[in-house]
C-alpha cells in the first residue's frame, strides 16, 4: 500500500469512528432505562474512551505520514514491520517495542 492509499484508509476510518463517537455521545447523555445493569453503562464509557484513543492514534499516524516518519517506530527508531502496518496502519511502534508496553484496549 502506498502512502496515498494509507492516508485514504486512515481518513475513512477516522471519519467512521468520529461518527460512531457522535452517536455514543448522544447515548451517554441520555438516561439509562431503569433496571439496566451498571455494567452496560460502564461498557459504553469504555467503548467511548477506546474510540477516542483510536482516533488519536489515527491522527498521529496521519501526522507521521506528513512528516515522513510513518513506518518508523516512535520508540526505537527502527522500521515497523510491514505486516504490522498492514494490519494496524495507525500503529506507531514496532512489535518489539509494543510488546514491552502495557497493552491498550485495542491490544496494541
Give a concise summary.
By secondary structure, this protein is mostly helical. The protein has helices at 3-29, 38-67, 82-87, 95-100. 12% of the residues are buried.
List the helices and strands and how they pair.
Elements: H1 3-29, H2 38-67, H3 82-87, H4 95-100
Q: How would you describe this structure to a colleague?
A:
The chain has 108 residues and is mainly alpha-helical. The chain has a single domain (3-29, 36-100), classed as Four Helix Bundle (Hemerythrin (Met), subunit A) (Up-down Bundle). 64% of the residues lie in helices and 0% in strands. The chain has four helices and no strands. α1 (3-29) runs antiparallel to α2. The longest helix is centred in the middle third of the chain and has 30 residues, at 38-67. The protein is globular. The model has no long low-confidence stretch (mean pLDDT 84).
CATH architecture title:
Up-down Bundle
Q: What number is the mean pLDDT? A: 84
Number of strands: 0
Overall geometry: globular
Order of helices and strands: HHHH
Number of helices: 4
Specify the structural class.
mainly alpha
> Under CATH, the topology is which?
Four Helix Bundle (Hemerythrin (Met), subunit A)
CATH class: Mainly Alpha
Major sheet:
none
Distance between the termini: 21 Å
Amino acid at each position: 500500500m502506498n502512502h496515498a492509499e494509507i492516508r485514504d484508509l486512515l481518513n475513512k476510518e477516522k471519519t467512521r469512528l468520529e461518527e460512531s463517537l457522535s452517536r455514543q455521545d448522544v447515548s451517554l447523555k441520555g438516561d439509562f432505562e431503569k433496571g439496566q445493569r451498571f455494567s452496560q453503562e460502564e461498557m459504553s464509557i469504555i467503548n467511548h474512551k477506546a474510540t477516542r484513543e483510536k482516533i488519536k492514534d489515527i491522527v498521529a499516524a496521519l501526522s507521521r505520514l506528513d512528516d515522513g516518519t510513518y513506518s518508523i517506530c516512535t520508540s526505537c527508531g527502527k522500521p515497523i514491520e510491514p505486516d504490522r502496518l498492514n494490519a494496524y496502519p495507525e500503529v506507531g511502534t514496532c512489535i518489539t517495542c509494543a510488546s514491552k508496553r502495557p497493552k491498550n484496549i485495542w491490544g496494541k
